[in-house]
Design goal:
The protein is an alpha/beta fold. Bound molecules: 2-succinylbenzoate and magnesium ion (MG).
């Protein structure tokens, strides 16, 4: 394949309901989509960077500028045999994993279409259906949270994860366990605690949690290793794992017993597969995280979740939990037993609703050839 043009687009999409984590509340998404054109085939990727640099240092404006000025020019005109070749071509740029992932994944999407193969098979997936959980944000009241959990359990989701932070944690977990003593339950702190909170964090051990996700700093492995020694509850790392080397370090130091893989956070499918394989070799189960994606990112998450070590329910849930109307067709749907069946269609398996994409687009830019930025071949 020869990448002829790359288009970046920003869509504004209000969430049906706000989503709140320990770092803040999101009411509406600014979605960055990437389209690659090669040999008459259009590959689509979604950049999962947020509206501000709060989950990680990336946000939509850094991703937009980095794709436009450095990453897209590194790919344009290059001969690319496979989607995974994109990673090497972009390696000169340090970091910016979410920006890189959007491009690399668009090329995997294109490659799958070109080979007339489902994307999930192309990446080496084997599971015909994936297990789904939900991530439920911080609410205005405990009643509201319990109501939401009730709805999601009735919909069939196999695991409930609640966001926690100081002041919204032990009491919340107590109430949930009182009502549902045996459901698969986990929590995600998005780095809201510090080692000095150890005595408080020990209380989490009373709730038979599947895991506690990312309790400490977003860039930390060492202190998580010390914390894991003190807790019965397995620690799961999300933010701290930027690539397979981080995963290797975390596993060897005992900083976690579970890893959440987000394809955007690690820079694309090739690194996500590397993290997956490493965890599999070390007996560490993984699951697929979410970043409030539209159907494009969601479709890629479905594909990723078919790799064999995705042994725990992921945060890959139905489009309709987030969007009044998703930009793919069919929308991502979850069965009453909390699973998503993969499609045998070539490519991502979900069509783009172009008319809706156009309608929601607030800016677009097409990058056609090398810009003078020192990245010319
Ligand atoms: O930490 O998993 C997280 C959303 C935004 C930023 C970080 C996280 C999340 C979620 C949402 O938990 C998961 C989803 O997309 O359903
Ligand atoms: Mg998380």
């Amino acid at each position: 394949m020869k990448v002829e043009t790359i288009t970046i687009r920003e869509l504004h999409m209000p969430l049906k309901y706000f989503f709140e984590t320990s770092f803040g509340r999101t009411e509406s998404r600014r979605v960055l989509l990437v389209t690659s054109q090669c040999d008459g085939i259009e590959g689509w990727g979604e950049c999962v960077a947020g509206e501000g640099p709060f989950y990680s240092c990336e946000w939509i404006e850094t991703a937009w500028a980095t794709i436009r000025d450095f990453l897209a020019p590194a790919l344009l005109g290059a001969k690319i045999e496979r989607g995974k070749d994109a990673a090497g071509l972009m390696a000169r740029v340090r970091g910016h994993n979410m920006a890189k992932a959007a491009l690399e994944n668009a090329l995997w999407d294109a490659e799958a279409q070109q080979r007339k193969q489902p994307l999930w098979k192309l990446i080496g997936g084997t599971l015909p259906e994936i297990a789904c959980g939900v991530s439920i944000g911080i609410q205005n009241s405990h009643e509201q949270l319990l109501e939401k959990i009730e709805t999601e359990l009735a919909a069939g989701y196999q695991r409930i994860k609640v966001k926690v932070k100081p002041g919204w944690d032990v009491e919340v977990l107590t109430q949930i366990r009182k009502r549902w003593p045996t459901i698969l339950l986990s929590c995600d702190a998005n780095s809201a605690y510090r080692p000095i909170d150890l005595d408080h964090l020990r209380k989490f051990d009373d709730f038979n949690l599947l895991m506690i996700e990312q309790p400490l700093w977003d860039d930390d492995i060492f202190h998580h290793a010390k914390l894991q020694l003190e807790l019965k509850t397995p620690i799961c790392l999300d933010e701290s794992i930027r690539h397979a080397r981080d995963a290797a370090q975390a596993i060897e130091l005992g900083a976690c017993r579970i890893i959440n893989i987000k394809v955007g956070r690690v820079g694309g499918f090739s690194e996500a597969i590397a993290v997956h394989d490493l965890c599999q070799q070390h007996g560490i189960p993984v699951w697929c995280g979410g970043m409030l994606e539209t159907g494009i990112g969601r479709a890629h998450n479905v594909a990723l979740s078919t790799l064999s070590n995705f042994r725990l329910p992921g945060d890959v849930s139905a489009s309709q939990r987030y969007w009044a109307g998703d930009i793919v067709e069919p929308e991502i749907e979850v069965s009453p037993s909390g699973t998503i069946a993969v499609s045998d269609q070539p490519g991502r398996g979900y069509e783009i609703r172009r008319d809706l994409v156009e309608k929601l687009t607030v800016r677009a830019e097409t990058i056609r050839s090398q810009r003078s930025n020192g990245l010319a071949h």
